[in-house]
Request: fold
Amino acid sequence: MKREQILTAVLGVLLLSSVLVLPTRAASSSYTGSYQSSASRYVATTSLLGTTTVQYQTANGFYSGVAGNGTFSSRITNYVGVSSGGNTSISLSVSSSYASNTVKASISGNGGTLLYVAVNQNAVEQVIWSGLAKINATSSASVTGLAYVNASASALLVLGFAGVSGMETTTAPLGVTSSVSVSVPQFTFTTRASLNVTGNVQVIFPTRYKSTSVGTTSVNATGSIATPLVSVGVAAFLRSNYPDMVWQGTGSASTSFNGTVSTGTTASRTSEFFGTNGTIVGFAQEVDLQSSKTLSILGVTTSVQTVASSTLIVSATQPAGGSSSSSAFTILVTGQKVVIQRNTTGTISSTASVESQHTVLVNGSSNTLLLLNANASSTYVVVNFSNNSSQQVTQTSPQSQKQTTITVGSKTYTATQVNITATGNVVFNVTTSFPSVIVFKTNATGTFQLNSANYWTSGGYVYVFDDPASTYYVANGGAVTTTSTAQGSSSTGQTSSVTSTAPTGSTQSGAQSTSSATQSITTTSSSNRSSAGDLEAAAAIVVVLVVIGVVVVAMRRGKPS
Reply:
């Protein structure tokens, strides 16, 4: 087999192996994937006479379609070049742009042979194009390739040119037009061989808040890059800003050529983006590999250089969430950093899974109560987006429950009496079969109806959010009996009567005033789980009623809607 064919086959192995390390999770028509892999091998040999001969192989593979298993095709080409003259400084004009996961670049100048163009951001390079392009007064280069770039941060365009001791590089800022220079000799290249190859693209989604690893394979060496979670924040994706997580790591790499092993590095960066209620909007994964080796035998110097990368971008076909602003709110949930972002539609995007969302009242102010799952455990958090404040909410269970009836004013309700022992904002839930529910609470200043924003029903449960009292009544609002006088009503069993008056303008944390009229509340017990002495003592107490709206919020056992 000819040397050119051997080199082409070796480069094909390098190109394909960078794809097969991505394991499959499941193909899904709700996500689309785009994949590009580029690899270049540059072998430069300088003789005693100072002439440099180059063997250069390059490949570009691309795939676009449903995220899952897919097949891509690539054409591998082998070139041979010879230098003419020493290094000269050339001036270049470079313009570039980035949009819709695509980088475009135009390079013009007075000399040089362009071999590859890459994007460097956060210490990972993505090769968007590799090939051969002469740059001179009559010839320029325009290239286009797939890349993920966080548009809210700076990035560099890397240009690789044919050089004597390897590929010479220069950089220019991405997204603008600028002038740069590089010192390289003039080369004359001819095409020797080409080969079409195919490979498989397989996709796996990263797991939020879990470390991961990315496999990488080079010629005659296979390894794995440990990529811990390095940041939780906000980044641009699909022309919007989303909460995101970033995993990044580096490892060692080696390649071989004619028995010569070249050492280098490999790096990987994965960014995952989260939309409404913590759904996955997509992710971008970049892997690069670079190695080099220089040998000198009897005055003949040979340098071997490999530059390869792959980029995989997966996006939802109908992404939900996203914001034109990069502002977000960071909180801690069970020790994990969580980013939440309120979108213009009123929905919440988050790096955590949002299991429920409800608007509640706290001190008369509208807040958002979220049930967040950050790492296989759920926690309630109440957030005030107007001043970027938050506090965690305790999820508690009632200490006791019993069936009873209560009379409020001239209305009598069947109810469940619930006793709570807790401090600070809490959420609790009890089962209910009532077709509609009204919730009251009793504390040292009286008995009040909670604001309806602060409780709701779901799946046979009523959920209550409050700065807690000790006693609540979950009443059946669909079966109300009207009596002529509150104090004259009679019932069987143990009875207690509480008459309260709410002064005008009185307030209480977590509630709003609903009435200033005198109300009579009578309860009739149908259970002996609370002592009769407690009920008789309550019947003798006359208190001032401060009617306030109480913050009540819905939750589900397990995963409330």
In short: The chain has two helices and 35 strands. Confidence is low (pLDDT under 50) at residues 1-27, 485-561. Helices lie at 3-20, 532-539.
